[in-house]
Every structure is written in C-alpha cells, then in structure tokens.
Amino acid sequence: MSARDAVAGIERRRGARGTAHASSRRAHRAAANAATIDGSRSVASVGSPQDRPSPATDFTQPSMNQSRHGAASPPDVRSQSQSHEQEAPTQPAIATPSQHPHRMTAPRFSLLRTRDGHRIAYAVAGAADGVPVVALHGGPGSGSQPSTARLFDLARVRVVLIDQRGAGVSRPHGSVRRNDTARLIDDIETVRRHLGIARWGVLGGSWGASLALAYAGRHPEAVTGVVLRGLFLTSAREVSGLFVASRRRAPREWLRLRRAAGCETGTRPAALLSRCQAALQRGANGATQRAVALAWRDYENAVLASARPGRAGGRTTRTSRRRADKLAGKYRVQAFYLRHRCWLGEPRLLTLARRAAAAGVPLVALHGRRDPVCPPANLGRLARSVPSARVEYIANAGHLATDPRLRKPLMRSLATMFVTEARGQ
C-alpha cells in the first residue's frame, strides 16, 4: 500500500471516528476536574487479583470488561496519599509546547498501585485536549524514554508514557513476579481508564511494537491507530539471532558476556540466554548480576552500532554500582520475557494483528533496512499476514528511533496517522 493510499484511507475513516475523538476530549476534561493527573504524585490502587489473567490466559480473546461500543468503563481507582519513599523520580526533560513552546520540562511520573503488588508509572506530555497517544517502550524492561514525546507535535497531541512492570520507575524495579504480557495489556487499559480516555493511538518500537499489536488485537475498540517501528515478532528465531548469530557483529563483547554469565568453553552458544537469566535472578551473587548486566549492555550497544559502518559502539565508561544494579533489573526482566518468547510467539502475534485490522484499526509499520536487532524481513511477514497494513522500509536506517534516517519518516507517519486526522474533524 502506498503512502498516498494510506492517507486516503485515513481520510475516509475521519467521519466514522470523529464522534469518538470528541468523546475522548470530553473525557479528558472530566478526568482533569476529577483528579490531578499531569504532574501528580498520587498513588492509586487499581484492579484486583481476580481481574488479572494468569500467564496461561488466552489474551487473544476479546476482553469481557469492555462495553460493546468501546466506551471506557469506570476504573476501580482509590486515590491514596504517597509517602516520600513512594515518590516516582523524574526523568530527563521533555517538551510541552502547550505550556512553554521553547522550554523543556521534566515529566513527573505518577504511580498506579495494582492489587498484586506492582506500581505502574506513567507520565503525560503535550496538550491537555490533544489527540491521545500512548507510547510503549521496548526491551522488555527498558523503561520509557522521554525523548519519545519529541516525535510528536505536542501542541496537538497528548502523549502518555507508561513504564511497564519492573521497568523504568515502576516498582518494584526488576521484578518478574506476576509479570507477563497479559498483565502488561491490562495495565495499559488501567492507565487509559484512569485518565478518562475513550480511545487512543498507539506507538510502539521493537518489543514495544510487539506489545502494541498485542494490545490492539485484544482491545481494538480502544485504539484509533497503531504506528510500529522496528517490529519484533517474538519468535525463537529472532531470540536465537540476537544471542547466537549476532555474535559475528560484536565478537569481543559476546565473549565477555559469556564469561560474565559463567559459560564454560564447551557451553553451546544457544545456552547463553538461559545462563544470563540464571545469573540475574534475585538472590544470585550481586557482583555477578552487575557483571552480566554491564556485559549485556556493552554487547547490545556494539550490535546496535554495527548498523553504522565505521562507527564504534562507544567507549566503555565507569558505571556506578547503583546504575549497574538498575541495569541488572532491566536485563532480569528482559531475560525472563525472552526465555518465554514474551508469552506470544510469531503466529499468535500475527493473529492479534489481523484481529486489530479486521476491527478497522489502521496499522503503519516502518523498519530500517540495516536493523541489526529485529530482522527487516519481519515487515514482509506482517504485510503478508495483514495486507491492509502500510509498511515502509527505510534505506540505510538502523533499529533505534534516534537514527536520523528513521526518525524523520517516523515523525511523518505519526503526524499522518494522528495529527492530520484530527485536523479534519
């Protein structure tokens, strides 16, 4: 599908979705009057154990908690005062043009407390009455990057950043207890209802793209459109590629990771992920956890840098013990998810993508031709499974949204999907 056809398709959908966006804006104002959302420090208790699916739950089935017309049902939220140790730390600055067009302000993460022991961090940037879009980070376990908000026109868009369970400033950091994809999808819905948003767009990159498709397939009535960057299909093939095939891209860093994880000379390369997971478990030797986390980070950076010929992966700098402990939490979550193929796998994920498209959710996917982490062929697999999806290969671009060759087309796709549509209402 060409870009022109995609825009034409979006124009035809404007009339059908105009009422939903108007309802969403009214819901935003009501939510703002009912509770402090942007920049608040409140902790809310949401959900209940029986509402949470087990890891074996078939979350490809439509949710039974949604109304037939997709309206947001009242959340089970009880505001509580937050003690000093519960405050979520702020992240680097992001822009909020609706308040200060030429200044950067630090986002303040609020926390939603789940009844199964997690506190989910979220932050909001942009116009209070803007088109709502939720941004889902990668990893798994990486946490939100405030720079993601700069991909949008924040004078017209209201961006919601969510730190997934165990990631970023969500608590407990690095926890894999009661942490799986089905619960992440429920957490996204919890935030949406808490903010009073009837429907929103979804942006996801890498693992965040997988989660975006899974969420849209489970809750298509809550999604206006999906934009994907560097799609990860959660297949065993991709995981093996990262820990086995990619060693050719960064041989020295791969050997250091093997040594840190305690792999002996005869250990099969395919066993590296399981060794890393074992070394990163809570209760394992702290020094070993930090060593594995630092080696994994260096290997990951070297693989990413291989997309830019002639450029090194960056100098290895001294890392504080506190930072190394945080990295250990990040990679603990990532290893846990990858060992379970993120509770998805390629066939299941593509089934969810087809379900979202069949429900009328437009899908746009961009992928760098030089992506060293997620195979560019993933885009073709999506296109064959979902013919209505608009897919675009970006020449000479890598994996990260910070790549200038990928960033500009991504911003253009976000504007087409969300801002252009809003202007027509």
TrEMBL record:
Q: Which residues form the AB hydrolase-1 domain?
A: 132-401
Region annotation Disordered: residue ranges?
1-103
Task: Give compartment(s).
Answer: Cytoplasm
Q: Name one GO biological process term.
A: proteolysis
Q: Name one GO cellular component term.
A: cytoplasm
Task: State the UniProt keywords alphabetically.
Answer: Aminopeptidase, Cytoplasm, Hydrolase, Protease
InterPro entries in the record, alphabetically?
Answer: AB_hydrolase_1 (IPR000073), AB_hydrolase_fold (IPR029058), Peptidase_S33 (IPR002410), Pro_iminopeptidase (IPR005944)
Q: Locate the compositionally biased regions of type Polar residues.
A: 57-68
Q: What is its EC number?
A: 3.4.11.5
Q: What is a single Pfam family found in this protein's UniProt entry?
A: Abhydrolase_1
Q: Does the keyword Cytoplasm apply?
A: yes
Q: Which GO terms describe its molecular function?
A: aminopeptidase activity
What reaction does this enzyme carry out catalytically?
Release of N-terminal proline from a peptide
Which family, according to the similarity comment? Belongs to the peptidase S33 family.
Protein name per Swiss-Prot or TrEMBL: Proline iminopeptidase
Give the source lineage, highest ranks first. Bacteria, Pseudomonadati, Pseudomonadota, Betaproteobacteria, Burkholderiales
